[in-house]
Every structure is written in C-alpha cells, then in structure tokens.
# Entry
Amino acid sequence: MRTWIISDTHFNHQSLVDVHWRDKDYEKKIKQSLSKIKKDDMLIHLWDICMWKDTEVHEKYIEPLLCRKLLVRWNHDNKSNTWYLNHWWDWVVDEYIININNKWVILSHMPIIDIRDWVYNIHWHYHDRLIKPISDYHKLYSPEKEDYELKELCNFI
# Structure
C-alpha cells in the first residue's frame, strides 16, 4: 500500500490559468497523475478540490479512484462533511496526524505556525506565493512546483 498526497487541485478554476498561476492543461496533468493510484493505496487531499460544479468534478475525478480517500478540510470546498462522505470520500478531517518513518507529521491545508520542533507539517495554500518554508519542519506541497504530480507521503518528509 502506498499513501499519496495532493493539494489544491482547484478543478474548474479558470482564473488560476488566467493569472498564470497554472498551466492551461493542469487538470489533464492532475488526472493523469491520479491514474497511477492503485486500489490498495490511499490518497490524502489537502483540500481545495474545485471551485464550481462540485458533483460533476467528484464524478469525474474522485468516483473513479478505487483507493481509500482522506480529505483534509479547508476554505474553497464548503459542502458539509456528509456531502463529501456521500461523494466518494472515506474520511473528512480538519487535520490528520500520522507517524511516518518514526516522524510525527500533521497534514493540513494551511501551515500550522506554532508546531513543536519534532513535528513536521505538510501543507499548502499559497499557490507559489511563498518562496521558502516557514521552518525546517514545514514541508510545502505545491501542485505547481511538483508539475501537478502526486507525491508519495513516505518520500516527502
């Protein structure tokens, strides 16, 4: 089993392309990356799935994924937890804490500023507007910087 992370997919968010924060074909790249997830894998999405047409996006991108899916809540996706659970997510949380390779990791959408120096925080939200991480314990996942590729969680820390 592999655990993958992705964040800020922002499907149906044309203004990100218009302001040159995203490639024109970013949705195609993300969909291609999602296709490598296997049935016994897990996907952790650090929120901001889409901007409009939530049901259509979930039918197109989330329903076909046969893996387990964890959604870490935040700002743009404003449906209820029940709505997401009814649309192919297995869990919906505000933060997710896990031990990976003997390191404690908090996955969140926004960075957690006051973390202990033995806890790592994987996050994103800035869309290429933040040049460097807040600290050595903050790991920024950016679809733009990763060429819209999923990252395996155990290799990201």
About this structure: The chain has four helices and nine strands. Helices lie at 14-18, 26-34, 54-62, 81-85.
